[in-house]
Amino acid sequence: MEIPPRPALFDFHGVSMTKYFTENWDNIQDFKARPGDILIASYPKAGNTWVSYILDLLYFSHMSPDRQDSVPLHERVPFLEFYMPGFPSGVDELNKSTIVPRIIKTHLPVQFLPKSIWEQNSKIIYVARNAKDSVVSFFHFDRMNKAEPEPGDWSSFLQRFMDGKMVFGSWYEHVRGWWEKKKSHPNILYLFYEDLIEDTEQGLDKLCSFLGLSPTSELKKQIIEKVLFDNMKNNKMANGSADEVLDFKISPFMRKGKVGDWKNHFTVQQNEQFSEDYDKKMKNTDLQFRTLL
Ligand code: A3P
Q: In 10 A of CB 289, how many CB atoms?
């Protein structure tokens, strides 16, 4: 399948977006949630794929091994707002899914979520990752993802991130928007990538308690093993290699999986400028991230 030229970024109701996430807008907004649906929401590069895989294993490990061995994760966990000619849209994939529960990926900022998801009181897991590692991961992702706008060089990308001119908008507004929503919405679990790295088993326990699941210790052990970074990286059904728009010659999708890789990218001056700007943008929130473990 011929991939079209990289898309342009434009303002969409106050959020930078590309056509691949806006052209199906009416169908996205009219999306009908079903009882039991579970949403994994995040700003790009926060670990959505990791949590998707954990959830898919938690719910569907008992199914025939075919599901895990032959269906790519991005088909098992459809991407709600994705819409690219030549590929099935996220909404179509979800509408035809017969699986219960449907596990749904989204990068939408909180104000863009379809009404029906709130009406159904669907469980939502929001995954958040510190800004510095997020921008580094996003930069490498945009280099290898032909469905993203051209990233340009690192310093201009960093500036664009600070300006909120990224696909799915401002990181600062995204993480804060969901954080505030969570305060009045018990069906949102706000999970940090850094916590998941530090103690994956504890993260799994948190997920299970939120979802009301009690997996056997054997299943938990298997899941922890399968979702280790290196094991996922070597798993063709979970490492993004089945995704045609990603160019692994430029960078792997499962790139480093670390906290603090930003130290290898930011210059001292970039770090100072970024931190100063960060403090201004985040001064009115009690949301705290760790940038190192
Ligand atoms: P890096 O680029 O820093 O390596 P998303 O799935 O939201 O796009 O996030 C992708 C990021 O999560 C990438 O970060 C990827 O390597 C990391 N990631 C995915 N699975 C992981 C795992 N099992 N352990 C640690 N990090 C993981």
A: 18
Q: Cβ distance 138 to 161 under 8 Å?
A: yes
The alpha carbon of 248 and the centre of ligand 1 are apart by a number of angstroms equal to: 15
Q: pLDDT tens track of the chain, all 293 residues?
A: 677 899 999 999 999 999 999 999 999 999 999 999 999 999 999 999 999 999 999 999 988 777 888 999 999 999 999 999 999 999 999 999 999 999 999 999 999 999 999 999 999 999 999 999 999 999 999 999 999 999 999 999 999 999 999 999 999 999 999 999 999 999 999 999 999 999 999 999 999 999 999 999 999 999 999 999 999 999 999 999 888 889 999 999 999 999 999 999 999 999 999 999 999 999 999 999 999 99
What ipTM goes with this model?
0.99
First to last CA, the chain: 42
Nearest atom of ligand 1 to the alpha carbon of 44: 7
Does the bond joining 109 to the residue before it have cis omega, within 30 degrees of 0?
no
* Distant-in-sequence contacts of 267-275, Cβ < 8 A, 24+ apart: 270/155, 270/158, 271/132, 274/131, 274/132, 274/158, 274/162
Tell how strand 188-192 and strand 123-128 pair up: parallel
Pair of tokens at residue 157: 């990308």
Please tell me the pTM assigned to this model: 0.98
Q: At what angle do helices 200-211 and 48-60 cross, to 10 degrees?
A: 60
Closest CA to 41 of 136, 113, 143: 113
Residue 227 CA, closest ligand 1 atom number:
23
Q: Which residues are catalytic?
A: 107
Pocket test for ligand 1, best of 45, 237, 245 (most atoms within 8 A of CB): 45
Task: Write down all domains in the chain, each with its CATH number in brackets.
Answer: 22-282 (3.40.50.300)
